Amino acid sequence: PDPSDLAALTVLVPTRRAGRELAEAFAKARGQEAAVALLPLIRPIGDVDADEPPFEPGELAGIAPPALSAARRRFELASLTLKKEGATGRSMGPGAALALA
Fold first, then answer.
1. Backbone angles phi, psi at 51, to 5 degrees
2. Which domain of life is it from (predicted)?
């Protein structure tokens, strides 16, 4: 990948500290290879100031996939339950998996 592509990315980190550490890691990589010219946008999703929103409205539009419908979510969970039960050697019918979901 081209290092200049990093500037178009948004990296979500759990805290400001993690954001600073990630920026420092990019700076160290730049010092060693002189390859990282522009940093991605690094945004903390936790421990932000009350008057500072973590995101601008619409900033993440198109990045996150749309939410699943309740029915689709339930069927996906039932499918995962069936796979897990099959992997452990236990058998379960689709109706039982759907009831657990």
1. -90, 0
2. Bacteria
